[in-house]
Amino acid sequence: MLNRIINFSLGNRLLVMITSALLIAWGTYTATRMEVDVFPDLTAPTVVVLTEAHGMAPEEVERLVTFQLETAVNGATNVRRVRSSSSAGISIVWVEFEWGTDIYRARQIVSEKLIAVTSKLPQGVGNPTLAPNSSIMGEIMLISVTADSTSVMDLRTLSDWTIRPLLLAIGGVSQMVVINGEYKQYQILASPQKMKYHDVTLSELLKAAQEANKNAAGGFMNEYSNEYIVSGIGRTTDISELGKTVVKTVNSSIIKIEDVAEVKIGASLKIGDGSLKGEPAVILTVMKQPNTNTLELTEKIDAALADLSTNLPDDIKINTKIFRQADFINASVWNIQKTLMEGSVFVVIVLFLFLMNWRATAISLIAIPISLLTAILTLKWLGFSINTMSLGGMAIAIGDLVDDAIIDVENVFRRLKENAKRPEAEKQSKLKVIYDASVEIRSSVIHATFIIIVAFIPLFFLSGMEGRLLAPLGIAFIVSLLLP
Predict the structure, then answer these.
(1) Domain containing residue 263: CATH number
(2) pLDDT of residue 483
(3) Is the domain of 173 the same as that of 293?
(4) Which of 106, 135, 153, 415 is a Cys-bridge partner for 290, taking CB atoms 3.0 to 4.6 Å apart?
């Protein structure tokens, strides 16, 4: 079969050259648009279930909430592991499925299981919800928001209501978490002495506060063939208006909230704090969705924040340089690319020194881009990304794939020189000499190549995360070596 391929290639040299040029163009186009990451995506299909249980201690959350959820999802189809964490007021359950399970099918399975368990949860516990789909290496950026004169409370409000919605609207962002700062609250600080003086109970004050900030629908009114919507606008952000809310009437005397409590804007209780270089700051973490190009997503985030910064007060600074996964990716990929380029340069020097013929050197070197781009196309077809493992496999393969080409080209070069020294009557056609020279050493080259490939076969028998980590290296190496 290989002899037929060699014979066909020699008889259709123009077709082979055109095909090679198209392969290089297609491979280059694909390589520039493939997802680039530090490592292959090691995210097992995982569904995260969040359940709020306000007021419960961790032991109660574990026994009454988490255990119920774990029991419900443990027997689901293709579930291989269930982990959980219970803390004060919240339960988190991680449901991991077998590798290869479609994540959206997994989320549907978990959703169906949660329907049955919701009725068994204690009263007051919120409905279990599924967290956004995110990658195990999904934290791609940390962003800080600082200011010289703007208060930390205003920075937190800006982060919650402006920056976070803006970034969540970018395709590829799965989740945004705002850390620290002062969370703005409208606080009603009751005075026990004033409440006792006006004979107001805590339940009455709570009811008045709950009903103080509402809009009421009044239906609609028809007049002169026009329909008008009637509504009562009671929602406000003015604390003086909130303070004038009526609690009750005693002997024709109106008791308002401001008569028994202080209404003010304040910050909620802090569990932790955030800072940048010793100064107060609000920190935002950006999580990406699986199979998302980190470099492209980082560029979109930078562009969105740069556009937002033009409309912010001059003293507010948004810093995206604290942690950027894109920087690690660029550094790692550049190191591997540098190794590839240096290896290629040394191969050129060694080939020319030993062959002393630029045409033979050029023919041998053509194997490098064709083999590497074919490996990239294969990785794309199999659903892998360009990462340090796949590029490492190509870097390892450079020496071997050029070695195969050198053996073939050197033997052809030698046979052509011998043929040129023969008498005219004994000379053979150049195509015949090239064919015979290639066939002469073909079996030796193939045997040597397969011996090297066999050494990498065990990589494909690794299971779990190890197999997914090393599989791109083996695929890139083997494909590069088989197609020089």
Answers:
(1) 3.30.2090.10
(2) 61
(3) yes
(4) 135
